[in-house]
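Expect chain and fold; see below:
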Amino acid sequence: MTGFQEITSTAALAEALKLSEQQPVLFFKHSNTCGISQRAFGEFERYLESAESARVQNYVVVVQTAREVSNELASVLSIEHESPQAILVSKRQAVWNDSHLALKSDALKTAVGVR
């Protein structure tokens, strides 16, 4: 199983975005008070068990505890904030994103598998 790193500071976000210049990175924005986000996080955990998840560095941003990070990510990538939300980034550019009920493990595997 591939793990993830939680991002809690804008400095850590900057490092993750810098890493995207070398390899794709996947950000999962999670709300720990939302039922839809809890379901999507379960799908994210199933995705982490797949071979495809090892192709990218996986990050989680918990919006309640890292609001500044969440807002900065949306601003830098010019993507409207949603949670739950998954954003695949390559070379500091969002190349795929989706949110809410569309976040299924198969959708995440497909997104990272074709990059």
